[in-house]
Automatic annotation (TrEMBL):
GO terms for cellular component: membrane protein complex; plasma membrane. GO terms for molecular function: ATP binding; ATP hydrolysis activity; transmembrane transporter activity. SUPFAM superfamilies: P-loop containing nucleoside triphosphate hydrolases. It comes from the Bacteria. This is ABC transporter ATP-binding protein. Keywords: ATP-binding, Nucleotide-binding, Transport. It comes from Kitasatospora indigofera. SMART domains: AAA (SM00382). Residues 19-256 form the ABC transporter domain.
Length: 258
């Protein structure tokens, strides 16, 4: 372990870091096909904070989310949820930790096609054998506006409707950390605004940590901090982002690229 790597004891003293990656490297493939999707990224995701992750297509955003959530493993470096380093867990303990503490909205939704909307939403709770908080579930279903579709299956829904189910599923168990990969990418601005409001509530009212990938400066404006990735590296960070400032930042970056 190098001097720069965090130790469990250090993180235990900093309980407000809900998730963290330290010196994270992720390499896909070998030799000529090697892709360095994450190139020494260190970032904290604080509790009770909403973080937007931005950057061009292929910059490593989804990879960062997957590795931070323990859905994929790093090639080097470490990923932490609270004071737990994910690399120290066996498969069973990692599955349990994910089930109990993490909600994930996949870029491709990943709904279970044979389950109804309601069953998809309560799936994480059912797997954990936990009783749902009915009032919270009702308010989720209300916000996503699919109360009349609860007994439909994902194949019978539009892309935007499936995305809303995926957001409700990630929030159903009120996990400590919610990773959402472009959760508003398929939504109109009104529905998108409602989903963003829901994520904001999880942060403000429940003290949860929300990490959201987005290409949309307006969506990033809901966050407390915005991180910018390029070529697998963290290239900038903005506190209290507004849509205008994020847009300016993106334009400046595009000018530099061209
Ligand atoms: N399973 C994989 N095998 C090989 N390369 C991969 C794999 N997954 C991702 N990559 C590569 O890693 C890099 C980062 O991919 P990633 O999906 O993290 O990008 P992203 O920022 O989420 O992009 P987008 O905005 O298009 O979703 C890309 O060059 C991609 O081609
Ligand atoms: Mg992606």
């Amino acid at each position: 372990m190098s001097a720069t790597e965090p130790r469990a004891t250090t993180l235990d003293l900093v309980p407000d870091v809900a998730a963290r990656v330290a010196d994270a490297v992720k390499v896909y493939g070998v030799g000529a096909t090697e892709v360095r999707a994450l190139d020494h990224v260190t970032v904290d995701f604080p509790a009770a904070r909403f973080t937007a992750v931005m950057g061009p297509s292929g910059s490593g955003k989804s990879t960062l989310m997957h590795c931070a959530a323990g859905l994929d493993t790093l090639s080097a470096g470490s990923a932490w949820i609270g004071g737990t380093e994910l690399g120290t867990l066996n498969d069973r303990r990692l599955t349990l930790l994910r089930r109990e503490r993490i909600g994930f909205v996949f870029q491709a939704f990943n709904l279970v096609p044979t389950l109804t909307v309601r069953e998809n939403i309560t799936l994480p709770l059912d797997l954990a054998g936990a009783a749902p908080d009915q009032a919270w579930l009702d308010s989720l279903i209300d916000v996503i506006g699919l109360g009349d579709r609860l007994h439909h299956r994902p194949g019978e829904l539009s892309g935007g409707q499936q995305q809303r189910v995926a957001v409700a599923r990630a929030l159903a168990g009120r996990p400590q950390v919610v990773f959402a990969d472009e959760p508003t990418g398929n939504l109109d601005s009104r529905t998108g605004g409602e989903v963003l409001g829901l994520l904001r509530r999880a942060v403000d009212e429940m003290g949860r940590c929300v990490v959201m990938v987005t290409h949309d400066p307006t969506a990033a404006g809901y966050a407390d901090q915005a991180l910018f990735l390029a070529d697998g590296r963290l290239v900038d960070r903005m506190d209290a982002p507004t849509a205008d400032r994020v847009l300016d930042r993106m334009k400046a970056f595009e000018r530099r690229q061209s």
